[in-house]
Amino acid sequence: MVRINLLPWREQQREERKRQFFIALAITGIVGVFLVFIANKYYELEVDNQNIRNQYLQGQIKIMENNLKDIEDLKKKKSELLSRMKVIQGLQSNRQILARLLDQFVRTLPEGIFYTSLTKTNKKIVIDGMTVSNNRVSQLMRNFEGSPWLANPNLTVISRLNQKDPNDKAAKFTLLIDETEPKDGEAIQ
Question: Within 10 Å of residue 23's Cβ, how many Cβ atoms?
């Protein structure tokens, strides 16, 4: 019988397979490391690109915030200008009313009365004056009631100037009047 020793051949084959396995393992490791390196670089580039985009967006947000502040400042200036315009328009309309009131004071003034002072606070007017008789003050109050610009005359004080002479009817008076505006149906004098 012939004896064939197959052990060294198997041993060589085993050594060859081990060597090929380790070579394949090394190549796989190198390829894996290379793939991890490439993936790492790719994601680093993506993160850098995203950071650049974020910086751009933050810059644009700051610009928009500045624009919003400018818009708020402009709105404040607009409201200030509108309030100034309302005040000016009110003064313009009051200018005409004041002239009408002064005209009414002259038109309603009966003979024998003269004014010493006129004071206007809001819609209330205080008249201080002098008269030759109390009947003239009554006539003045009736004239005020007939005026479309004046209403509710109220005599608060009347005092004689010369208490010693009963024939001297000269007196000082204080009269309160409300300012009104004529209704649409009333004629503006």
Answer: 10
Instruction: State how many domains the chain has.
Output: 2
Residue 45 Cα to chain centre, angstroms: 48
User: How many whole angstroms separate alpha carbon 65 and alpha carbon 50?
Assistant: 22
Instruction: Using the 3D structure, point to which of 63, 84, 108 is the last residue of a domain.
Output: 108
151 DSSP β-pair partners: 178
Q: At what angle do helices 7-108 and 134-146 cross, to 10 degrees?
A: 140
Are 132 and 175 within one domain?
A: yes
Tally of CB atoms within 10 A around 105: 20
Contact 141, 158 (CB under 8 A): no
Tens-digit pLDDT profile for residues 118-162: 888 888 999 999 988 888 888 988 888 888 888 888 888 887 777
The H-assigned helical ranges of the chain are: 7-108, 134-146
Query: For the chain, what percent of residues have pLDDT higher than 70?
Result: 89
Mean pLDDT of 96-111: 83
